From TrEMBL:
Membrane topology: Multi-pass membrane protein
Entry keyword annotation includes Transport: yes
Annotated signal sequence range: none
CDD domains: TM_PBP2
Protein name: ABC transporter permease
Family, per entry: Belongs to the binding-protein-dependent transport system permease family.
Keywords assigned: Cell membrane, Membrane, Transmembrane, Transmembrane helix, Transport
Subcellular location field: Cell membrane
Species this protein is from: Rhodococcus artemisiae
Domain ABC transmembrane type-1, residue spans: 94-303
TM annotation in the entry: 7-29, 98-118, 130-156, 176-193, 234-260, 280-299
Length: 316
């Protein structure tokens, strides 16, 4: 009930705060979308007509209320520049971004958690130092630079991967994977590096516990200690960091999709901001806010499976 109550309380507050802030910033930005849409040779009457058609002649709060009331029924409005329903426009761009994000999350989890655990087998050893250097480099290197480096090596030099574009999964797993792997790796490097550092710290903290030392003294194999005791006890901070990084990873798709020429939500966001397409921007923001809320909910629910005592302490 605690998790459900938190979701019920925070969801409308976060949704209103995020969408209202974006709406206010776009309204305060210089320029007039009606002028751009009316054309270079438009008269004042043409601009006024376009402004009336878009509802831009209404007061600020009325315009936001009209959008909000429609959004709550599933209608996100019509794109200013494309004259297409925003829900259809977002739906047409959703698969590339979703594919990129899911593959990047899988890579980040496998690399981050795997390297973090391996580094704790011999703390201060060669592998631990290598993981530390790799993690520091992964955090420091910009994602767009990593993406361009991957394109230069694998697409231009080795010619083993395509440099740009996206192929839908319906056209085959192999071509889909060939177009997704490089951008997903570029997107996953930073969260994987941060996840490796947090995993290492959490696991080392658990390894110093008395029950772990007792298990080692009894001669229990290391792999069994890790699987039965360490991973579960270190799971909560790892899952918490993972939830935060997944939310940040979604923002990274804007840069990576631009580098690799993928027509997803990231490039749609940039085009909409440059074109002052307010309904499209608000639709993307509303979707992003919903995704973040779902991720936070899944993180909270995962605590019940990792360590039910944590839920009991929170409820108390």
């Amino acid at each position: 009930m605690t998790t459900l109550r938190r979701v019920v309380i925070t969801t409308p507050v976060l949704f209103l705060l995020v969408t209202f802030s974006v709406f206010a910033m776009m309204a305060a930005a210089p320029g007039d979308p009606a002028i751009d849409l009316a054309g270079q040779n438009a008269t004042d009457e043409d601009i006024a007509r376009v402004r009336g058609e878009l509802g831009l002649d209404q007061p600020f709060f009325i315009r936001y209320w009209d959008w909000l009331s429609s959004a709550l029924t599933g209608d996100l409005g019509t794109s200013y520049s494309r004259r297409q329903p925003v829900t259809e426009l977002i739906g047409s761009r959703l698969e590339p971004t979703l594919s990129l994000a899911l593959v990047a999350v899988i890579i980040a989890i496998v690399l981050g958690v795997g390297l973090g655990i391996v580094a704790t087998v011999r703390p201060g050893g060669v592998i631990d130092r290598i993981v530390g250097v790799v993690s520091a480099a992964g955090i420091a290197l910009p994602q767009f630079w990593v993406g361009m480096l991957l394109v230069m090596v694998f697409a231009l030099t080795l010619r083993t991967m395509p440099a740009t574009g996206y192929v839908p999964l319906s056209e085959g797993v192999a071509p889909w994977a060939a177009h997704v792997v490089l951008p997903a790796v570029a997107l996953a490097i930073m969260p994987a590096a941060e996840l490796a550092r947090h995993t290492r710290g959490s696991v080392l903290e658990v390894l110093d516990k008395d029950h772990i030392l007792t298990a080692r003294a009894k001669g229990i194999p290391t792999w069994r200690i890790y699987t039965m005791h360490v991973v579960r006890n270190a799971g909560i901070p790892i899952v918490t960091v993972l939830g935060i990084r997944i939310a940040q990873l979604l923002g990274g798709t804007v840069v990576i999709e631009t580098v690799f020429g993928i027509q997803g939500l990231g490039t749609l966001t940039i085009d909409s901001v440059l074109g002052r397409d307010i309904p499209t921007i608000l639709g993307i923001v509303a979707l992003a806010a919903a995704v973040v809320l779902v991720i936070n909910l899944l993180v909270d629910l995962s605590y019940r499976f990792i360590d039910p005592r944590t839920v009991n302490r929170v409820a108390a």
